[in-house]
Amino acid sequence: MNPMREPTHIDVAQVYARPGAQPPLGPSRLHLAEGRIARIEPLPAPPAAARHRIALPAPCDAHDHGRGLRTLAFGAQDQALETWLSELAREPHVDPYLRAVVAFARMAEGGIAAANHCHNTQDGKALLREAQGVARAARDVGLRIAFAVPFAGRNNVVYGPLAPLLAHLPPADHARLIAQRQPSRTLQENLALVEEIAELSHEGFSVQYGPVGPQWVDDEALASIAQASADSGRRVHMHLFETRQQRAWADAHHPGGLLKHLDAIGLLSPRLTVAHAVWLDAADCALLAERGVMVSANVSSNLRLRSGMPPWRRYLDAGLRFGLGLDGMSLDDDEDMLREMRLAWHQLSTVDGCERFSLGDLFQAVCGHGRASITGQAPGDAELKPGAPADILVLDLRHLTRDRLSEDPADLLALVVARATKRDIQHLLVAGRTVVHEAHCRSVSLPALEAALLAEARAARQRHPPDDAAITRLQGALRAHARCGCAPPFSERETPWI
Ligand SMILES: [Zn+2]
Predict the structure, then answer these.
(1) Backbone φ and ψ of 72, nearest 5°
(2) Which SUPFAM superfamilies does this one have (predicted)?
(3) Which site in 39, 127, 236, 360 is 20 to 30 Å from 180, CA atoms measured?
(4) Where are the domains of the chain?
(5) How many other C-beta atoms are found inside a 10 Å radius of the C-beta of residue 309?
(6) Which fold, 60-382?
(7) What pLDDT, on the 0 to 100 scale, is given for residue 379?
(8) Interval between CA 118 and ligand 1 midpoint (Å)
(9) Selection from 35, 50, 204, 177 nearest residue 117 by Cα
């Protein structure tokens, strides 16, 4: 294949047009034009250079945050979400473009063609400027990014009233936490910002409503978002039931069931994606499936933040559609979507000890449902076929197959899921552009951007070092608060994921 940025064709030994759902097409030339697959021409044999290459629909990251500085890099150690959130205060303030472009280039190198971007603001009063940086980064790297505009406004720092938490802290800390409880933007400002940010839209940048989570957003805002989504057709992306404490808060505040409440507000619709969804019971899963809501399951993140595991069996029982997300917290902190697929696959393929979930289902989740959650298009769009967007992952299997005795192509896909990592990526094409070639991002210079980001972050950290003692005191108070009975009681629910 021609390694130019917009190749006219790619040759491969196998085309997995619908991986796992239909047999591969064999040696082929994929002709590309205007960002789409023009036609797929069978070849008698692949050219020598393409003998080990296979083409797949490109994976999608259904939930992420686009932080160029990884959380471990700025000193936020993995731990339970509720105390981990206070560690985010350590993140140095950097240029929004640099922050996003480094994240997106790394995600591209991890095999990701499209991603949800749940934006975490660095400056609540500068959201539009930050969105401009993200939109430019999406264009430069060449990914398809859905920017979820954050809506929050209550229960910051702790679920429920602040006073019982403050009782565990010295008075000198109170003013800062009281200030943190104040929303930085009103509902009307946020709704107006969605419209302004939507004006930045391009092929690789679209806008979604991003209520951060039901415990952090009041009913007036949730109802307004539901109505605005129905009117505009824009999607909604929200964290839901990530942790047991969140479930406990919901059970205490909505004895009739949080999901029924959200349904009555009008929020549950096919335009909604909920991220994490770890602490769902069977009735929740049935209701979400009935309303056509999509889930982003985030396995690595749930492990690193001690949240539990997605209740896979309940998802499958209900027929709930889901994609996979990295949440900026991949298992090896390397943004490798192929590893994430493997992690989910090993869990899902053992549900009930039988084959309820196939390789075809895995690729449909990651390339189909995940993509639909980001782009709003039909899941079938992930199929490699004439007319489809040229979002294609080409893997070179030389490394994976070096010790393989069988020549049978039938077991190749299982080998890919069992072994492939981002190092095996020959090409990632998005809308026909070469974003990654031989495992390195080609649309931007990641090493140079990383160096610039780190220099800026180090300078910012020197100017405003994190207040380690205050973070430690807050974490101690949060733990004491959870133990003393003034926080919502922990639920006794289990996560029987197999
Ligand atoms: Zn998240």
Answers:
(1) -65, -30
(2) Composite domain of metallo-dependent hydrolases, Metallo-dependent hydrolases
(3) 236
(4) 9-57+385-441, 60-382
(5) 16
(6) TIM Barrel (3.20.20)
(7) 67
(8) 7
(9) 204
